[in-house]
Write a structure and sequence with these properties.
The chain folds into 3 domains: 94 residues, Beta Barrel (Elongation Factor Tu (Ef-tu), domain 3); 114 residues, Rossmann fold (3-Layer(aba) Sandwich); 42 residues, Dihydroorotate dehydrogenase B (pyrk subunit), domain 3. Helix content is 13%, strand content 34%. It is built from 3 helices and 15 strands. Strand 1 and strand 2 form a beta hairpin.
């Protein structure tokens, strides 16, 4: 089990990043613990007496040298909405790193990441680290419109990224499963996906038809983040498991999905 910490990080930047979402750049006073793509942090929400529980967020980026940890926060409720209003200089209490991350690709792999919504954060983190290791990963991101995507200039230049929008305002028109990339799955031997559940199930179903290894990062509702409250239970081939501890990343073959 990896080491975890309860610590305070200072908000260095809170930047608008597409419609109803922000990029929250946090800085620590000390060296950060190692964080793997797919792992998450549990953030205590300040200045909101209606929000008692911490909120989980996937990590978008880590700069170990500058002690920076970046989160992509999408306005989905009272907790995330409050967090998006936090000003620079404010300290946030977090518990990290939590959960298990993606299986890192190795030399010779041909990986593809497919994401939507807040699920783009861990996928772009993974793709960035893979590129640094000399492994090229294609990334396919979907959203309702161009305004709902993270700005294109936030994607690292060494990542080949494809976009889809339901209204055709950016990239290909339609869902991610309609994109030409998804019709060429024979070109890949490993798929990673995170985002809305129907999207992940559709991607997993296509991967299954081509016998391509597929890992999904689940976004079940969580409370404690430690496997105590049992809010995030997911049925698997080995029985019910807590997404916050056994996941959030699972091989789709271990899940009892009808795909």
């Amino acid at each position: 089990m990896s080491k975890k910490a309860v610590t305070e990080l200072t908000v260095l930047e809170n930047l608008p990043c597409g419609r109803n979402q922000s990029m929250l750049v946090l800085q620590g006073e000390h060296d950060l613990l190692p964080v793997k793509p797919g792992q998450f942090v549990n953030v205590e929400i300040p200045d909101n007496k209606e929000v008692f529980l911490r909120r989980p967020f996937s990590v978008f980026r880590v700069d170990e040298e500058r002690r920076l940890l970046t989160l992509l926060v999408k306005d989905l409720g009272k907790g995330s909405h409050s967090l998006m209003q936090v000003g620079t200089g404010r300290k946030l209490n977090i518990i990290y790193p939590l959960g298990n991350g993606f299986t890192f690709p190795v030399t010779g792999d041909r990986p593809l990441a497919v994401g939507g919504g807040s699920g783009v954060a861990p996928l772009l983190f993974l793709a960035s680290l893979a590129a640094s290791a000399g492994i090229k990963m294609d990334v396919l991101l979907g959203a309702r419109s161009a305004a709902d995507h993270i700005p294109v200039n936030t994607v690292a230049e060494d990542i080949r990224c494809f976009f889809t929008t339901e209204d055709g305002s950016l990239g290909a028109s339609g869902l991610v499963t309609d994109h030409q990339v998804m019709k060429q799955l024979d070109s890949y031997n490993r798929i990673y996906t995170c985002g809305p559940l129907p999207m992940m199930k559709a991607v997993a179903a296509l991967a299954k038809t081509k016998s391509v290894t597929c890992e999904v990062s689940l976004e079940n509702l969580m409370a404690c983040g430690f496997g105590v409250c049992l809010c995030c239970i997911e049925p698997t081939v080995e029985g019910n498991q807590c997404v916050c501890t056994q996941g959030p990343v699972f091989n789709v073959n271990d899940l009892l999905w009808q795909i």
